[in-house]
Amino acid sequence: MPYKKSLLFACFLGVSLSISYCIRQDGQQEALDIARDWCQLAAYPIFLQKPEIDTTGGMFTRTFEIHFQADPKLIAEWVKQSPGLKSKPEQKPTGQHYRVNSSKAAHCDVRIQAAQVYIKTYWS
E strands within the chain? Predict the structure, then answer.
């Protein structure tokens, strides 16, 4: 009997972790897609390195923070192709800062520093 309970628990745990992983992956893709839409960005560079995605909020407010690395030449081309990044960026010690005026988001900020891209967008 204890063997059956252990086996059931192991199966339950395995299924739960698999479902959680799938939801997390879908959530990450959703965050990337929403940030692209809200910030009027071109398709992300093909060779993204280590994308980090943080989604917070609930039904009435949502924040997406995305950080990725790519070759600086790919990032420069991506900026040229992104309608939301057509304005002149602010030059700061932490890199180029773009504030995107979007009708879909309350705030959209893109910061580029060498091979690093940081995107933060939210609505509330």
Answer: 49-57, 62-69, 90-92, 95-99, 107-113, 116-123
The closest of 58, 103, 59 to 84, measured between CA atoms, is 103
User: Which tens digits make up the pLDDT trace of 72-108?
Assistant: 999 999 999 999 999 999 999 889 999 998 888 889 9
Q: What is the DSSP letter of 104?
A: S
Q: How confident is the model at residue 122 (pLDDT cuts 50, 70, 90)?
A: very high
| CA distances in angstroms from 43 to 10, 22, 40, 93, listed in the order given | 40, 23, 10, 27
Nearest to 96 by CA among 115, 78, 111: 111
Residue 110 makes CB contacts below 8 A (sequence gap 6+) with: 39, 41, 84, 85, 97, 98, 100, 117, 118, 119
Cβ atoms of 95 and 87 within 8 Å: the answer is no
pTM above 0.85, yes or no: no
For position 3, what pLDDT does the model report?
A: 60
